[in-house]
Amino acid sequence: MASPTDIRKGRVMDYHGIPHLVLDMIHRTQGRGSGWVQATLRNLKTGSSSTVKFRSSENVEFMHTEVQKLEFSYDDPSGYFFMDLETYETVEIPLEAAESIKEFLVPGNMYDLLYVDGTPIDVNLPSSVEMEITEAPEGLRGDTASAATKAATTESGLVIQVPLFVKVGDRVKINTADKSYTGRV
Predict the structure, then answer these.
(1) 153 Cβ partners below 8 Å, 6+ apart?
(2) Is the alpha carbon torsion for 147, 151, 153, 157 positive or negative?
(3) Taking burial as the number of CB atoms within 10 A of a residue's CB, which of 12, 15, 26, 139 is the most buried?
(4) Over pLDDT 70: what percentage of the chain?
């Protein structure tokens, strides 16, 4: 068992028998009383987030984690499949675990998979991904008052705003934090 003061962003802890990822943590102390830790936790089974307070006198349990870089292969109705390029072993991630990031999963790209106690449970996105534009209307010059953009669809189905010069077949870099266009590749 560990103290709540050992809670750090990115660690996985056992909270009510379910693995939770620590998204944020604040350590507070009051003038007279004992301190407490407020942590924002994401349930790795359901994906929901909650804020929990721990007194410094409580105990918490951390889980053994490992991160492995795997290549995304394909998806089907049962889940998302990743391949280890060294052993050619295929790993399946359930649909619910990667539902929120599915629009950033592109076959052939490498992603970090989070293993908790030997079981793959979550996919960590890189800060940006490269995708090909599959649909984009022609940009019209002259109908702009400031930075001109148009809606374009990527190979994963993600719709983003891009400059007028981007056309079908171009590869673009997309920021995964806010789904914004950052440049052509």
Answers:
(1) 133, 134, 135, 136, 159
(2) positive
(3) 12
(4) 96
**pTM across the whole model:** 0.77
CA distance 47 to 99: 9
Tell which CATH classification among 3.40.47.10, 1.25.40.20, 2.40.50.140, 1.10.10.60 matches the domain 128-184: 2.40.50.140
- CA distance readout (Å), 91 to 19, 87, 97, 165: 19, 11, 13, 39
Give me the residues paired with residue 159 across strands. Answer: 153
DSSP assignment string, 56-81: TTS-BEEPPEEEEEEEEEEEETTEEE
- Cβ partners under 8 Å of residue 119, min gap 6: none
Of the candidate ranges 75-79, 112-116, 141-145, the one whose mean pLDDT is the lowest? 141-145
Query: 134-151 pLDDT, tens per residue?
Result: 999 887 666 566 678 889
